[in-house]
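Listing 4. Sequential folding, example run.
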Amino acid sequence: MVKQKHVCIIGAGVSGLAAGKAFSSRGHRVTIIERSGDLGGVWEPARSYPDVQTQSPKDLYRYTDKAMPESYPEWPKGPQVYAYLRDYARDHGLDGAMRFNTKVEAMKRRADGRPGWTLELSSTDGAAGHEDFDFVAVCTGQFNERQTLALPGEDGFRAQGGQILHSSQYGDPMLAKGRKVVVLGGSKSATDIAVNAVNSGASEVTIVYREPVWRIPYFIGGLVNFKRILYIRAQEEMFKSWGIGPMSRLAHAIAKPFVWANWRGLESMLKMQLKLKKCDMVPKERIEDGVNCSVPIATPGFYPMVADGRIKAVRGTFDHYDGKTIVMSGGQRVAADVAVLAIGYRLGVPFLSGEHQAKLVEPDGQYRLYRLIANPDLPDMGFVGFNSSFCTVLCADMAANWLVRYADGQLKRQPSAAEMRDNIDMMLNFKRVERPAAGVYGGLCVAPYHFKHFDELLADIGTTARRRSPLVEKFTPPDAGAYARFLATAPVYKAVA
């Protein structure tokens, strides 16, 4: 018999909602702590920049038990994703479990010796206190704390009317109208904002980036949806993965010339389609060496605007401000009215003590997480949404379904602490030695190993169905509806008070 737990979910974004649904559906009492005033995480309207849309098609960016509306376009806009998440919370009765404008300041093991954690909470109205929970699911993900960049001359720039914004603060396109906009960063948010600034009537737009990276258009060659090339098991199997035996290694060695030709063909197509040579933005890195969560989607219109000069592209980074001019690391000077810092977010769990942080994060920044979900040295705790990818919602859903069973001791393959540590060490070695690209974002990116990751989670959970028909499974993207059917074949249980 599984005893009911009082579970704290930290974060009310995509991952927090997945965890809230997973734990409440198993009979647990759930409290969702959210520091902002609304649900949605990066999709909360107050945090979204104009024209933001998903990088993944709607049939990949969804929960297993809820499709996005038929009326949505294939790549939904920010307000549509927010509405989908709001409806999901209502569908599963999570509204009443949410505490907004509440921040986790710190957490420590319960002093009474019982399993669980004591959280130090504060709210925007000044209230503060401590609360005990039997289990904590950290669902803050990778877009939690804004990355900052403090440079000489900022005060003078602002004194002359200049504005410095993080990309998440670029909420009104009228900020750009008639003004000189300089965007720092090479992410999709950077290119999205640069294109939006042009379309919003900026007098000049400059994007400043360190090195060109491979970007994938929504339709490769203008015809084939990229999900049908990059999100299939056949393509995933071109990458050596962890834990493979001698025969698999031999197969990879034999196939190496064909795999090499596959990637060179894709590179050639992208160079031609996106006019990368004309834009002087051909990446130095081979595309297969960098395939992970940092390979962004090509913002429609970005490369044509660079090619015809509507967006000026400068390699380097900001060095300092000089009046209304931004001086680059290479000495270039760019006049600016608005500086948009599309430099991402700091990855971390700041409310954990230094002692617990040391158990979670390696000196090189990689996370010690079994299945990217749990750490054996941090009991009564798990992480949802730290297994990020291009199908982030599905990844969070699968992680949440795994975590509730792990917390309840109901996994078919319930790992021991020693097994978890050995597996974590093996995975860290794989990322450092065999697949360095897998070490970005704290080693928490699932791509390009979506299918293998899901296979492991389903096997642990104990589902009796894990695959579709061979051809469908090999040559079509992950199907959230199919994973709902697989999860339905797992043993059923309910926690009791």
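-- end of first protein; second protein begins --
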Amino acid sequence: MRSAFRRTWRRAVQTYQLACARDDAAKRKITIPSGVWVCDHCAEALLELNALREHIRTQHAYI
């Protein structure tokens, strides 16, 4: 039962993050394909959210 709850929670969080990313892109008047994350600092495109977090942690830690 716990694993089903975790899986549902993870999907809800991912859906929310994707919706936030799309809203942010719409405010900036840019079109980003579904499933692509873009760094705000250097505009590098990444295919996974974890890769984006790692990129920000390693490349932009001073900001």
